[in-house]
């Protein structure tokens, strides 16, 4: 038991190291960006109204003070860590003075919901079909299905989304193509709101599912087709064990281990295809928030979203590391 | 197999349920009483304070429908008809030396919470912003205002620190202006910079009904007491539009789809091809500024090739002229706007009152204009360019292009400079450049190459114009690279970190000949060295003594004096001589309207209001719309 | 080597099909060296012409021939994708195998670095690096950045295989009989790892090209350089799908699909050849 505690402790130390390095790197890159938030805001404020140039100079100084960009890089960095530890990413520059954490809190449920749902659906369908295709290698229907999945697989998220948008939002206007739910609804756990959210999330989720299927399918099919020729499976077949038992107990279970590793990592990988899919479908999640933050030169928002994603992935990796020795006892602790 | 069946079943089930959901596009609002407008994504959706930075929600209907100030200028109008007294009862009254401005306010205007609007609100607005640096209009008030006082409930007197005949423009809306704050709300607020003003108290005809905390939409409802507002007083009957919805509608493709599905009545901006698709596929249910090609609404801004005058190689007007004469404006018009551009040879947008004030009277001068190339003189102006572009688009648009050359000028602009590589070569030689192989060497012996900076997909038509001009320069011996600067575009222009760029440094009132809107900041007093941040608008970093004289005189001339237009012409002639930047065209916006539910949108035949959804001036359009089928 | 390929072509139909498709795309991409319309030039042809005998794939709204534009675009995109894939494979194999084999402190250090890179969200990092470098961000540099972000997931997978191999008997035999670490890794472990490498290379190529498309759609690459993503960028700028200029989008997608089908079939059949007994059985499995 004590070796397990030591193992977990070590993993936790590593988790801390990951977060430290990731956050530091993200902060440094963001701060080397030439986008000047004060200029960005000034442009926004003055580009359409008649402003006296002398007035602009005064406004510039006032904004620099307001946005808290004064002090050297190290002071800003220390400041940032202080805020991260308090889960407070400071005020958004482009939505001043609303706190970044509030913007993220508004957007996160949408992304998490969309991502978790579509990844789980993808994982289940991709692996089941992949395992079947790997085991029943000469089944024609599965081969056709495999070819279909393989053909869709290389199409980037953006194309898939665009094709779905055109097909089911334009030629046959069945699904909404913008937003997270119908406008002006009572937000809450009522049936019509949940229905509306599912209805609006259908096309973005379908884009993610279709784009993600292939990866699981290929991985699972090759794992299974390799295991099928293994001695213990052949012995089992010779010994008259039922094929469905062989499939589920001998083959699929063994192939699940590496796939589980991949799943946990995918759950943390917030910014895979979701950024571009949210952008395309105008979905109110963190991906869209991030793109807006980048376009508007919003340091604190980009840092906030990035930090949250670093935490999410780091936690997912920690969980796998802790769970892995339980699943595969031959992995030595330490 | 199971997967496919599952998918088909899911799609089938949702397809069956979809029409039920689609009937009620916005929960609880009758579609026939609702106007749906494309808005920007509000990052700061809970924020309705228009007076502090961070107004992410401003153009989501807040400034268009609930805020108000003293005067409006209709950028589409001209002369007296363009001017609208809003909260003010009359035009601004200045004393003789422009050190004092007196404003009379209308009586009988109320805030949406029932409080009366009075002169105290105006005084409070100015005083609060002076007291709180960092508020949006704090700096201009601090610089200009010595003191402000209400002499009675409906009269306010401003004492200015220095003569300024344009002080009233701070309260004059073309896009926005200093909005009036409700004293009865803000007087009790500890820090007006961090007050969200949520829900906002409205001074205009609409009030906030509901909004999305993710900033995707905001809904505004007609006030029950709409008559007690400056815009309501001018109306004979209640506006038919009961609800206005500002919603983000996704990328340009999604906007077109949403309008074709009748879920978006007013589009802010799409690419020309999207506009053509709407005109082709939905001609019966849409309308736009121009009834046929080129459809677009010209904003009173002037996309140009900005040239960094402070760079050695671009400091000579001859070089700048050479670059201008290497451009074939027909190809630029075709490539950027598919011919739907309103081209401009003068350094003022060819829109609104600029056409009668400047473009028409100056045609003869332009036609006679002689340019000394150093090896001879040429007359570079080609008045027939509009005609030629009309012929280029003729095969595609056929009958919708009028035969009348005068009408063609309204659609395609007046003339432009004739592409003339020979004259350009003469200009370069006389500027001390030497030919080498296919290219040129600068007087310093460096190869003459250019970088042309564009913003990118935020303004697709201008990015497209940039790539074509770069190609034309490259083909004529000046290798040019297009740089896509994205969100850093304006910052790099600001500090002079560019050689040439596509952007606008000239914007006008649209409905008034006065050019102070941009010209004020062109004074050489404001010029800074390269690397330092140049105050807005003179991003070309052009310095000229004659220009300074024009600006200085304009400061002391009354706003409505005929001298204003004369000074404008002096500026325009100087800009042709010097070519500090190369004007290209008006900023044409493709903004079609859906007529399924609403009619009576402004158009070139009836330009009663600006129609840009982000412009505060759109309020005059909203209250005039009629339900479809009522006529 | 040639004998192997010849045998595969003769006896393995999957390999033959994959080889043919990949070669087809390669030949098509190489054709751009003889293009009559260099990819940077605009408005040489009438815009918006549908596919016809004169313009096989039609023309774009920018007056370019889609056929020749696509040829150059496929070449450039493949060059980008392959650069990313090869660079990231080198890193992934080295880190994964060394980490899995050595274990202990070396493993922890390498995996700490690995996990740190995994935890960096790719798209925002690349966008930010682009902001910093602006037009100095050339495609080879972008490929290096992408490769630096794209190896981590696969090296973890490879490590997990290596980790299992380490406790296998033949490894112990090798160690006791005095084989060097290098030799054990290359001779004994690499054959088990290679199939994984082929699959992950597939996914990595897809990832790299998706990345190119994502960045281009947002306008954050050199948009003047013909590439699959760049073609889509310009098609979007002209609202090609809405305007019915489908050939501007359909042919780029088609070319990617063919390329990937070909590569996939190659990877599958090569996997069978390299590892005829499917020795992957023991990775994480029950003995």
Automatic annotation (TrEMBL), chain A:
Main location: membrane
Membrane topology: Multi-pass membrane protein
Keywords (A to Z) from UniProt: Cell membrane, Membrane, Transmembrane, Transmembrane helix, Transport
Highest taxon of the lineage: Bacteria
Span of domain ABC transmembrane type-1: 108-324
Entries under InterPro entries matching the protein: MetI-like, MetI-like_sf
A cellular-component GO term for this protein: plasma membrane
PROSITE patterns cross-referenced by the UniProt entry: ABC_TM1
Transmembrane segments: 12-32, 110-136, 157-177, 197-218, 301-324
Compartment(s) where it occurs, according to its Swiss-Prot or TrEMBL record: Cell membrane
GO biological process, one term: transmembrane transport
Family note: Belongs to the binding-protein-dependent transport system permease family.
Name recorded for this polypeptide: ABC transporter permease
Originating organism: Pelagovum pacificum
From TrEMBL, chain B:
Subcellular location(s) of the protein: Periplasm
Keywords: Signal, Transport
Transport among keywords: yes
Signal peptide location: 1-22
Start and end residues of each Solute-binding protein family domain: 84-521
One GO term (biological process): peptide transport
PANTHER family: OLIGOPEPTIDE-BINDING PROTEIN APPA (PTHR30290:SF9), PERIPLASMIC BINDING COMPONENT OF ABC TRANSPORTER (PTHR30290)
The name this protein goes by in its record: ABC transporter substrate-binding protein
From TrEMBL, chain C:
Chain segments annotated as coiled-coil in the UniProt record: none
Residue span(s) of domain ABC transmembrane type-1: 74-267
Cited PROSITE patterns: ABC_TM1
Membrane topology: Multi-pass membrane protein
CDD domains, alphabetized: TM_PBP2
Keywords associated with the record: Membrane, Transmembrane, Transmembrane helix, Transport
Protein location: Cell membrane
Highest taxon, organism lineage: Bacteria
Membrane-spanning intervals of the chain: 12-34, 78-104, 116-133, 139-158, 189-209, 245-270
Cellular component GO terms held in the UniProt record: plasma membrane
Pfam families in UniProt: BPD_transp_1 (PF00528)
Gene Ontology biological process: transmembrane transport
Cited InterPro entries: MetI-like, MetI-like_sf
Main localization category: membrane
Family: Belongs to the binding-protein-dependent transport system permease family.
PANTHER family in the cross-refs: OLIGO/DIPEPTIDE TRANSPORT, PERMEASE PROTEIN (DPPC-2), OLIGO_DIPEPTIDE TRANSPORT, PERMEASE PROTEIN (DPPC-2)
Protein name: ABC transporter permease
Protein source organism: Pelagovum pacificum
